[in-house]
Design a protein that fits this description.
single chain, alpha/beta, Undecaprenyl pyrophosphate synthetase, six-stranded parallel β-sheet, 7 helices, disordered N terminus, binds 3-methylbut-3-enyl trihydrogen diphosphate, binds magnesium ion
Length: 240
């Protein structure tokens, strides 16, 4: 997307994935409990979602809670569940922005009340298509692939498909992200340079952008820097 408007990014990815990392360190630096870092992180999510909407990002996937994050102390997990619960209430206003919300991952381990909210949000925003926000919660790239493989195995067992029918398109169609294009750009904040089990399949040809900025400090200016860097990349997809 070219333009002279300051709010216009030079080139925006169709599908942007964000690994929101560094909330705990942000809080520690300020002598605050980790939960305060997560709260500040939720604010950053709201701000970045707005920026992406203005810039025309069609699919935005946030890594909010991994299948491995259950290893954290109970106190932190409880604080995160409370935050998700509160945040989702506010997120209902996203409907006004014609935003579709999808959760990636198995909802079963979440508290009943939260699960009901997640399901309701998905259902009521189903009709919107100007932007899709995917919240990866209890998400793992391996779990995503296993979940898809199980579904295909079931279809094969029922005789609806034969194993030789299985191709990339069919497997993609069973992933939590079904219907969305592969990730174009993945941003990870806080200086870590790894995927930590995020979008393993969907990131096959994604560009990566790593920044030392901690997630609660990530803002419009930082996002623009990422898009400017992305615009310079030469994506070959195996070609020349
Ligand atoms: C990311 O921030 C948020 C979640 C994983 C829920 P962290 O909580 O991992 O923050 P650091 O990495 O400890 O600073
Ligand atoms: C990745 O961050 C998961 C989320 C951002 C939700 P982590 O902080 O859990 O990742 P590791 O442990 O540093 O790899
Ligand atoms: Mg972390």
């Amino acid at each position: 997307m070219a333009g002279s408007d300051n709010n216009t990014a030079p080139c925006v990815p169709v599908h942007l994935g964000i690994i929101m990392d560094g909330n705990g360190r942000w809080a520690k630096k300020r002598g605050l409990p980790r939960s305060m870092g997560h709260k500040a992180g939720a604010e950053a999510l709201r701000c970045i979602t707005d920026c992406c909407r203005r810039w025309g990002v069609r699919y935005l996937t946030y890594y909010a809670f991994s299948t491995e994050n259950w290893k954290r102390p109970k106190e932190e997990i409880d604080a995160l569940m409370k935050l998700f619960d509160e945040y989702l209430d506010e997120a209902f206003t996203l409907e006004k922005e014609q935003t579709r919300i999808i959760f990636l991952g198995d909802k079963a381990p979440f508290p009943e009340k939260l699960r009901a909210k997640m399901e309701k949000l998905e259902k009521t925003s189903e009709k919107y298509d100007s932007m899709t926000v995917m919240l990866a919660m209890n998400y793992g790239g391996r779990d995503d692939i296993i979940h898809a493989a199980k579904r295909l195995a079931e279809y094969a067992a029922e005789g609806d498909i034969t194993p030789s029918d299985i191709d990339e398109k069919m497997l993609s169609g069973q992933l939590y992200t079904k219907g969305a294009p592969d990730a174009d750009l993945i941003i990870r904040t806080s200086g870590e340079q790894r995927l930590s089990n995020f979008l393993l399949w969907q990131a096959a040809y994604a560009e990566f952008y790593f920044t030392d900025v901690l997630w609660p400090d990530f803002n419009e200016k930082e996002l623009k820097k990422a898009f400017e860097e992305y615009a310079k990349r030469n994506r070959r997809f195996g070609g020349v």
